[in-house]
């Protein structure tokens, strides 16, 4: 009887700490995955905006460097 009581007294804090440690580990893992997904999304958005800007600059350069004889068409 005394052994079981002492065992529970010593084991309960260990179990509580283990549960808290598992919850903290899960929290860290979930937040790391969320941060990774956020970084990937932001990278794709910035690359897309850069591609659009690059395309607009190329198209603007082509339009600006036409022959001067083409000016009367439009």
Automatic annotation (TrEMBL):
What is the name of the protein in this document? Answer: Transmembrane protein
Q: Which organism is it from?
A: Bacteroides eggerthii
Superkingdom, according to UniProt?
A: Bacteria
> Which of UniProt's keywords are assigned here?
Membrane, Transmembrane, Transmembrane helix
Q: Where are the transmembrane segments?
A: 6-25, 46-64
């Amino acid at each position: 009887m005394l052994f079981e009581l002492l065992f529970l007294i010593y084991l309960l804090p260990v179990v509580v700490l283990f549960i808290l440690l598992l919850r903290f580990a899960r929290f860290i893992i979930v937040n790391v995955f969320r941060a990774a997904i956020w970084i990937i999304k932001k990278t794709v958005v910035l690359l897309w905006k850069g591609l659009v800007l690059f395309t607009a600059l190329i198209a603007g350069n082509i339009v600006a460097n036409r022959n001067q004889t083409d000016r009367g068409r439009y």
